[in-house]
Amino acid sequence: MAEKKGRGKIAAKVEDLIRGPVEEAGYLLWDVDYFKEGADFNLLVTIENTDRTKAIDLDDCEKISRLLSPILDREDPISDSYYLEVSSAGLERELSRAEHFRFYLGKKVCVKLYAPADGKKSLVGTLISYGEEGLVLGLENGEEKSFGQDAVAKVTTVYENL
After folding, report:
1. What is the rounded CA–CA span in Å between residue 33 and residue 98?
2. Cα distance between residue 28 and residue 49, in whole Å
3. Which of 28, 45, 65, 118 has minimal CB crowding within 10 Å?
4. Angle, in degrees to the nearest 10, between helices 58-75 and 9-24
5. Where are the beta strands (DSSP E) in the chain?
6. Across 105-130, average pLDDT
7. pTM given for the model
8. What structural domains and CATH numbers belong to the chain?
9. For the segment 41-59, what is each residue's pLDDT rounded down to a tens digit?
10. Is 39 exposed, middle or buried (0-12, 13-18, 19+ CB in 10 A)?
C-alpha cells in the first residue's frame, strides 16, 4: 500500500512539469511512467476526471496529449526519443499514492491482504480513512476494519455503475 517506489527520475521530473497544466485543464494526474519496451522508450501519462461520474474518453486523452506535447518539446526533460501516450486510469485501478486514497475516500474499494483477516485475504468496503498508519474500511454489515500499511498488499477501486 506504500507509495510507488523506484519511480524513475525522468517520470518524477515530467510529473512535476505537467501536473499544473493537467490540473488546470480539469483533470487529475493519476500517474506518470517512463519505460523501455523493446527498442522504444515510452512516456505514459495516466489521467482521471476530477468528476468521478464522468469517464475519460479518447477526446480527453487527445486533449491532454495536445496540451502536453508543446510543453514537453519546449522543456525537453527527456534526452531519448520517446512515444507519448495519454491514457485513462481505467475503471478499476490500483490506489498507490496518498492523493489516490484521498480522492476515493467514501467510495468502494477492494483491499487485498498479505495474510488472512477473519479468514479472508480480500475485503470490499467503503474507504473511511487513510493515513501513514494504514486505512479503515467500512464493511456492508456496518463493521469497520482497520489495517496497518504492512498488512495491505494492494487496494483497488471497485467499479460501481453510477
Report:
1. 17
2. 6
3. 118
4. 120
5. 27-37, 40-49, 82-88, 108-117, 120-131, 134-138, 144-148, 152-157
6. 95
7. 0.77
8. 9-88 (3.30.300.70), 98-157 (2.30.30.100)
9. 999 999 999 887 788 999 9
10. exposed
